[in-house]
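Bumping with the actual sequence this time:
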Amino acid sequence: AIVGAIDSPVKKDSSAGTEIWTYNFAETLLKNGHQVTLFASKGSVFSGELVEVAAPSDVLDTAGMISKRKFVRFSINQMIEVLKCQDQFDLIHLSVYSLQYALPFVKLFNKPIIITMHQSFSDDKDTKLIFEKFYEPTYVFISNNQANLKYLPKNYRIIHNGINIDDFNFQKSSNQDSLFWMSRISPEKGAQDAVKIAQKSDQKIILAGPIRQPEYFETLIKPFINEDIQYLGTLDLTQKIKNYKKAKRFLMSIHWEEPFGFVMVESMACGTPVLAYDRGSVREVITDGKTGFICPPDDINCMVDYVNKIYEMPEEEYQKMRKNCRKHVEENFTVEKMVDGYEKIYQKVMGDWE
């Protein structure tokens, strides 16, 4: 059993990274010969058995934002549904962002539990207590940086995320000189820095992603939208790939310790170098100077310098960097490589359980 998100559908062209991860992961397991049941929201798409436990609209308030009260209730209902039919499964794999509502149920399962850690944990005594209380599962961290904690669970592994690289067509050279930034529109993702970088480097930029904090968007992003600073809204998979491919460089101007960052891998798979602040897993994903450039956190001037550096590169050198990007993803961040790591964990926990 794989337990996925309930606030948005698990499908190939989801706007959320966790949902895309879950879709690719479940489909690859199925292709590898496993029997898989996915518990997720209505509107999810899956080739195996799908149990729809809630509609995204079930957890939204009247303003269209997630209602915490409703989200908690339906998250608990989801775990109850899994619990009721747990004897059908050899193991339970949790792939949910809001782990706090699912963790109490691990005490009720009589099956091995695997948890992919899509979220960040504070390195404090509360985290220590959580891992001590819920020691039964095998926790999988998605980067070394994420697992760089003083307090770690009893059983854990580190496996980098992977993408379905066949979905992302490589383009040896960009056909536009614009910057590209894509994520959810909220302060920690740093859209406001991306706007400033574009302005200071006198370059066009395309922004994309769902608006999660309307006030932030209305105050710090919308006033600057014009012919050179465009906001495209939420993109489907085809639109994403189109913008990755045509961009000269991708900006990763994050303001938080992002555990992984799918957009970096997706961009590089299409051949587009990434300019990023040195936060979270950035140094594990980007090879500085080879597949992009890394700047100190919040150093807008450094980002501007590297924007200009890439723009001034001879075409042959730039094409080499784009090829490096694609090769780097092929060697390190494919869904096949990721699933192989999880299958080894599955085999071990099943062996230990028996």
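The tokens above came from a reply further down the thread. Residues 335-353 form the longest helix (19 residues).
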